[in-house]
Design a protein that fits this description.
Blueprint: H1 2-12, H2 18-105, H3 110-137, H4 139-145, H5 147-161, E1 165-172, H6 183-201, E2 205-212, E3 216-223, H7 237-248, E4 252-257, E5 263-270
Helix pairs in contact: 1-2, 2-3, 3-5, 5-6, 6-7
Length: 272
């Protein structure tokens, strides 16, 4: 800093000889070079600092994405195991019970036959519902059947249980959708919404719309339940699961609700 003031003092002095003029020009050039170097140093330093910050953010995002993938894989494997256990073990027990009841129905007296048949039908209905549930939990079955058919099965199951009226509206050309890899994630988001509706909304109607566009699939789900305040709602596991799954496949996610006006979820998934 002292040198800088000395240079300024030299500049302010009257120039009388060529040697002094050359010296002054030399000092000015040196000063300009020093200032340029200092500026370049700070620019390079700032760029390097920004790059390190961006790299750290990218690493954190990659870590969180990998963590989400791992969590989803664990969840899918757990659901798959539960579905297989339900189908193989509990389903087998209900099948045996249904066969035994069929045999016994031919040996009982007429006065209790009607009640016995009702019990047999209830066991048969439970077996059918159990098989449908096990299929909706098994990711391999969902991938093989495809997204739309899996949703159709879920709609039939809900209507069969008479928990609420459920409709499915198909728009566009289903054949344009050619992504089976992420269908399971989209289906799990829909399942989560349905689960929340059944448990919390007190809705009587659930509507699902699949709109097949040229390179994207738009999914809209809404219910006519009691709704909630989005800004005040506690971010529970269900809401977080839906958002995290949508983020994982880069699907546009928009959840809206107002008290007394139900809940609406809109997903836009670009699969090209």
């Amino acid at each position: 800093m002292t040198n800088f003031f000395i240079i300024l003092q030299e500049i302010e002095k009257p120039v009388s000889t060529p040697a002094e003029r050359y010296m002054l020009m030399y000092m000015l050039v040196v000063l300009i070079i020093l200032c340029t170097l200092i500026i370049l140093f700070f620019v390079v330093f700032q760029k390097r600092k920004n790059k390190l910050i961006l790299d750290k953010i990218a690493q954190q995002q990659a870590f969180e994405e990998e963590l989400s993938k791992t969590q989803l894989e664990i969840q899918e494997q757990t659901l798959k195991n539960i579905g297989q256990e339900l189908h193989d073990n509990v389903g087998q027990l209900l099948s045996v019970a249904n066969m035994n009841l069929s045999i016994l129905s031919m040996q009982i007296s007429e006065d209790i036959k009607e009640s016995f048949v009702e019990t047999k039908d209830a066991v048969k209905e439970s077996l059918s519902e159990l098989r449908a549930l096990s299929k909706s939990l098994n990711s391999d079955v969902i991938v093989n059947k495809g997204l739309q058919q899996s949703i159709e099965n879920e709609v039939r199951r809900l209507n069969k249980l008479k928990l609420l009226k459920t409709t499915l509206d198909i728009k566009g050309n289903p054949e344009s959708y050619n992504d089976s890899k992420n269908s399971i994630i989209l289906f799990r988001i829909i399942q989560e919404f349905i689960s929340n509706t059944v448990k919390y909304s007190k809705a009587t109607l659930l509507e699902i719309v699949l709109n097949y566009k040229e390179s994207a699939l738009e999914i809209v789900i809404l219910d006519n339940g009691k709704g909630f305040n989005i800004n005040e709602a506690e971010k529970g596991a269900g809401l977080l699961n839906m958002k995290n799954r949508a983020d994982l496949i880069n699907a546009d996610y928009f959840l809206s609700s107002k008290i007394g006006e139900g809940v609406k979820l809109k997903l836009n998934y670009d699969y090209n």
